[in-house]
Each structure stands twice: as C-alpha cells, then as structure tokens.
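step=encode ok
step=design start
structure_in=
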C-alpha cells in the first residue's frame, strides 16, 4: 500500500469510518447522581464518542461574570444569563459533532422528557441509533452529594429536580427499550456491576457498522464527495487479471525480496490489483522472509501518519477557537493559562526534533 492510499485510508477512517459513528447515548440523572463519574467508568470517550455537556461552559461563564458557583449566584439574573450563553456554546459544539455524524454522549438531567425525546427523534431521522444511560440515586445521596459540590443547588432545588427525573424513568424505558441502561450509583450500591454490564453492551453496539438507510446514504455521499474510494474493490478485477497477477507474483525475478517490483508490475495491469486477497496471499507467500519486517515498518509508519493527521486536525480546530475568542469584544478578558502555553511549546520542541532528524538530516545527506 503506497503513501497516498495510507493517507486516504486514515482520512476515511477519521471521517465516515470514525469510531461510534451514528451512535448517540443520552445520559440522564438527577443532581448529585454522579453522571460524569459514571461516564468515566464506562469509558465512552475511549469508544470515540464526544461528550456534550454544558456544565464546563456554564462554570466558565459564571467566572467571567464574576459570580461564584453558589445558589444565590446561579439563580440570579446574571447567573441565568450565563446559563443561556453556556447552552448556546454547547449547542454549537453538538451541531459540529452532528455534522460529522460523530458518536455522541448527550449529558443532561433527564428532567425534561420532551426535550430528550425531540433530540432523539431528530438524531434518528439523520440515521443515528440511540441509547440511554440513566444514573439513578436515592434522594438522600443526591442531597448529600450536592452539598459537597463547589456548585451547589441546595436541598430544596435538588429535591424538585430529583422528583422530576424519577417521574420520567418509565417514559425513558418505553422510548429506549432494550437500549436503556440503569446504573444505581446511590451510596453503598454496587455500581461497578452495573457499569461493567453497561460498558460491554454499549461497546459492542458502538462498534457495529451503521445499517440505517439514512446513515448508509450519508456515508456513500461523503465518500463520493471527497473522491475517496475503498482500496479494495474485488468486483472490478476479472479472473484473467487475477491469473496474470499471480503469474507475476510467482516470477523468480520478484521472489524473495523484490516485492515492490512485483507490486508495480501487477498494478500496471490494473490499479489496486496487488491488494486483491488472492494476489496479496501469493505475494506474501513468495516474500515470507522479509514480510514480517516490512509489515512492522509499514504499520509503524501508518500509525505515525494517523497521529499526524489527527494532530493537524486538532491544531486547525484550536486555531479557529483562539481566533474566535480573540475576535470577541471582551478581548481584555482573554487569558491563556501558563500550563497551556507550556504544553504547546513542549509539543513544538518535540516536533522540531523529529523534523530536524527526519527531514533536515536527509536533505544534508542528499547534498
């Protein structure tokens, strides 16, 4: 497989073949239920799912407004205005994820059934499959945990929200059916058992290829739009093509080392023919002695290129986020924490070292 094909494969996997594509998990539970804790335990982000949660944006908005994470500030007019801002930011974030049909974890309280039901239907119309993890606690646990948080709501408000969420459990079960997972995270409960069962089920489900018609249509459209074709297309090769390719692969001139020459000769017959299973098997058999090392080098190089493609995408996103932040009228409030600057500087140093060794040193050798 040449460099161009490797990069096309990586881009394809980071797009239409992204892990957990077209899968959305709604997270519900009352205040103090420990939803964030359970999300970490179920390792949903490791499955490629993006967490959609307005809490971090809300806390940041409160701080910018000079407010504390306490009931009086949270429920003040300024606090509620900060909540509106945070929800807009989170909504935009979710919109970007949905545009790429990426896997989602939509974090909420579960008190508004109609809102979750509406989001569920909208995502399913786009081709998503949906599930729910309901993190349950008794009221005593919810009140105690809220009191211990830096952003507390107070016992009265917690009680109202807890009851509202409890009243919706039956509705959620009817809506999500077999894809409704309940984790009891009350103090003293064996949450580990529920978490493990949930992880196994969600993991198996998330890895399944989308079968919804809308999802398959979108995937095909994205491939066509980006001019990305699968490396292997067995149907386009005739039996004559395959027979000729096997003959070249078995030629003594290419046996025992000159696999590159064999691949080039085969692909002159028809592009991609060397990747056909039958042809590839013969090539491998004829070059057994060197295949193991070449496979290792190829896999290592592909892994590095995959990492670089991902880094490139994240750098672009960071640049866009910084440009947007710096363009805001409140630029005088813009601040970059020292640890962030330090990490970026260190990352640049590492990349410089690799570049100097891999690129500049090679240039000097050529000279």
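sequence_out=
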């Amino acid at each position: 497989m040449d460099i161009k094909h490797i990069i096309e494969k990586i881009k394809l996997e980071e797009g239409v073949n992204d892990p957990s594509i077209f899968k959305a998990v709604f997270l519900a539970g009352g205040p103090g239920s420990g939803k964030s804790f359970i999300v970490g335990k179920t390792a949903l982000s490791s499955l490629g799912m993006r967490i959609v949660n307005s809490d971090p944006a809300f806390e940041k908005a409160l701080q910018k407004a000079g407010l504390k994470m306490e009931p009086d500030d949270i429920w003040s007019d300024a606090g509620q205005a900060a909540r509106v801002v945070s929800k807009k930011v989170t909504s935009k974030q979710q919109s970007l994820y949905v545009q790429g049909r990426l896997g989602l974890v939509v974090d909420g309280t579960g008190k508004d059934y109609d809102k979750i039901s509406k989001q569920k239907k909208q995502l399913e119309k786009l081709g998503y499959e949906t599930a729910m993890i309901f993190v349950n606690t008794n009221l005593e646990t919810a009140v105690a945990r809220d009191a211990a948080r830096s952003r507390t709501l107070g016992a009265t408000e917690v009680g109202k929200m807890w009851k509202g969420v409890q009243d919706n459990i039956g509705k959620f079960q009817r809506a999500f059916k077999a894809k409704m997972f309940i984790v009891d995270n009350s103090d003293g409960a064996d949450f580990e058992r529920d978490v493990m069962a949930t992880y196994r089920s969600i993991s198996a489900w998330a890895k399944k290829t989308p079968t919804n018609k809308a999802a398959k249509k979108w995937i095909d459209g994205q491939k066509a739009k980006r001019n990305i074709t699968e490396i292997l297309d067995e149907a386009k090769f005739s039996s004559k093509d395959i027979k000729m390719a096997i003959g070249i692969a078995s030629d003594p001139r290419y046996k025992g080392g000159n696999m590159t020459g064999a691949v080039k000769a085969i692909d002159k017959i028809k592009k991609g023919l060397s990747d056909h299973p039958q042809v590839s098997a013969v090539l491998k058999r004829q070059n057994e002695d060197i295949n193991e090392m070449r496979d290792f080098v190829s896999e290592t190089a592909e892994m590095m290129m995959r990492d670089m493609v991902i880094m490139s995408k994240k750098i672009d996103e960071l640049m866009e986020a910084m440009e947007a932040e710096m363009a805001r009228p409140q630029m005088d409030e813009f601040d970059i924490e020292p640890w962030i600057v330090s990490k970026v500087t260190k990352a640049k140093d590492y990349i410089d070292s690799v570049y100097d060794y891999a690129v500049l040193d090679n240039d000097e050798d050529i000279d």
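step=design ok
step=annotate ok -> The domain at 18-215 is CATH 3.40.50.300 (Rossmann fold).
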